[in-house]
Amino acid sequence: MSNVVLQVEDLHTSFFTRMGEVKAVDGVSFLIREGETFGIVGESGCGKSVTGLSIMRLLPEPGGQIVGGKIILEGKNLLELSKKAMRAYRGKIVSMILQDPMSSLNPVYQVGDQIAESVRLHQGLPENMVEPEVISALRLLRIPAPEVRIKEYPFQLSGGMRQRVVGSIAMSCKPRLLIADEPTTALDSTIQAQYIALFEDIQAKTNVAIMFITHDFGVISRICDRVGVMYAGKIVETAPTREIFKAPKHPYTVALIHSVPRLDQKDERLFSIEGQPPSLMNLPPGCRFCPRCTVALDVCKEQQPPEVKISDNHSVSCWRVK
Ligand SMILES: Nc1ncnc2c1ncn2[C@@H]1O[C@H](COP(=O)(O)OP(=O)(O)OP(=O)(O)O)[C@@H](O)[C@H]1O
Ligand SMILES: [Mg+2]
Questions:
Q1: Domain containing 23 — which CATH number?
Q2: Nearest CA to ligand 1 atom 12
């Protein structure tokens, strides 16, 4: 079994607002191994981005705070590092492609300079080595004519190309862990497929561990080795991708997989899950999915289900699963 790169243990992250505490991440645990792609999937607002931003220690301020747990990256608990030490880790050991890629590119700088900034900061190369390194980072993401592209500004690139530049910045320092937050959502399906192929290619070359955030089980099936299904701040099921498609156990997982459009079922109306996730400020005492669950039992209303290990790498939190 490959080395564990990231281990998140019982992570709790909250936002302290005037209205009260929003428990955006509420006891999340998972691990990612070298060369593995672990997907985090769930509906909007369930805490996927906040989990990624917690690992980066880049929570929106004021208000966002990690209130408990451990984030162990390459054997070090990131929550014990000073701000300065964390800055050195960011980019070099862990980097993140943010959900909105445009917000991470500066419109007034050439793209080459933006990648060079990250290369200089983390690799400490002599100045004459910086440009070749920038070009090789662009080449890794299969950007054509990188020598020309480095002189261009973000507005001169197409959306798909910008997405690759953001990927180049994230990969330029050869991190051990890459967090990719919905990197394919804004792309059309052809470019999406190409971008996913690129991730696989990069991983084969660098053995980077990837945490891939998406709301789309279709994307999960194409890229992830294992997946964690998140609902209202908790991971409710974790399993290898193939197993979760073949035998999903949590009613929420079943519903999410059911709502992926299928080419072979043209006439059927697309399935959607009734109702809304609960407010993270006012959570129900029992299972958080219970109000929307079509197979709920009495106990589901009253008590949170414990996590049950149904095989070595398949766990689920549901009262129906013993
Ligand atoms: N700056 C903030 N202030 C207060 N609450 C916040 C803030 N950012 C996020 N939250 C809360 O944290 C929850 C989780 O947000 P997060 O961005 O992680 O969702 P997500 O799963 O990434 O959703 P999406 O699929 O829409 O990107 C939200 O439902 C919201 O209640
Ligand atoms: Mg998000």
A1: 3.40.50.300
A2: 24
